[in-house]
Amino acid sequence: MARLQRTLSNVAEESGRENGRVGVVGGSTAYPNQPALVGRAAFRTGSDHVRALVADPIYEIVAGQSPNLLVDRYAGETFDKRAVARTHEMSEWADALVIGPGLVDAEPDAIRSVVDAVAIEPSLEADLSNAVLTPSGAEDDPIYDAYGSLEAFSRETDAVVTLTGDVDEIVAAGDRIQNETGTSALSVAGTGDTLVGIVASLLGQGMDRADAAELGAWILGKTGELATAEFGPGVVATDVIERIPDTIR
């Protein structure tokens, strides 16, 4: 972990640029708040700019979550081919692009780049060589069905996987390591979106994908420990997000 902390420090000192821009494509009428959770986590991890692209019916909900979050919209309720061009525009703007949190009704061929758990199955036919996937243990069946194991999947596609559960695990280049931080309170809704925001921010700041996945899981776990020490069993995702800077310090 000391190596990864030095890596983050070196990225900040040597980049000679801003601390990254994160784009978030997600949300639906059933799950409108997930893009805002991702954005808040990315901001607290150090990103300078976060822009969300959401369906028109939930635009006001997401835009009202935070004055710091930039929000765009696409027409209709479903992420389909009409929204792809807007996504491509965002990908050109962003240093790291998140696709998937709360996006339960997307058309399969609209899924690209960084893919959250709800979008894993349609993304398996895409180019994942620049992707980080964040499934829970209940959401990785499509990978096992297609590849037999997460290790084989990471070798064949060059994707990085952060598998969340009682103990978070990172799988990259055929290797699997366990994260050493965390608490049972991190099973609360929204902490998966928090992890996505943390990892995306680290990617946007120039960190290698495997390092970003490993450090992101460590930051989430340690931050969950801090929040649980204060709130006990009543901890919620936003409590965790607000303590990310304490962990990074």
Automatic annotation (TrEMBL):
YjeF C-terminal domain sequence ranges: 1-249
Record-level Gene Ontology MF annotations: ADP-dependent NAD(P)H-hydrate dehydratase activity; ATP binding
Top-rank EC class of the record's enzyme: lyase
Family, as annotated: Belongs to the NnrD/CARKD family.
Subunit structure: Homotetramer.
Catalyzed reaction equations: (6S)-NADPHX + ADP = AMP + phosphate + NADPH + H(+); (6S)-NADHX + ADP = AMP + phosphate + NADH + H(+)
Cofactor(s) the record lists: Mg(2+)
InterPro entries linked: CARKD (IPR000631), Ribokinase-like (IPR029056)
Residues that, per the record, bind (6S)-NADPHX: 102, 193
EC number, as in UniProt: 4.2.1.136
Positions bound to AMP: 192
Protein name: ADP-dependent (S)-NAD(P)H-hydrate dehydratase
Function in brief: Catalyzes the dehydration of the S-form of NAD(P)HX at the expense of ADP, which is converted to AMP. Together with NAD(P)HX epimerase, which catalyzes the epimerization of the S- and R-forms, the enzyme allows the repair of both epimers of NAD(P)HX, a damaged form of NAD(P)H that is a result of enzymatic or heat-dependent hydration.
Superkingdom assignment: Archaea
Alphabetically ordered keywords of this record: ATP-binding, Lyase, NAD, NADP, Nucleotide-binding
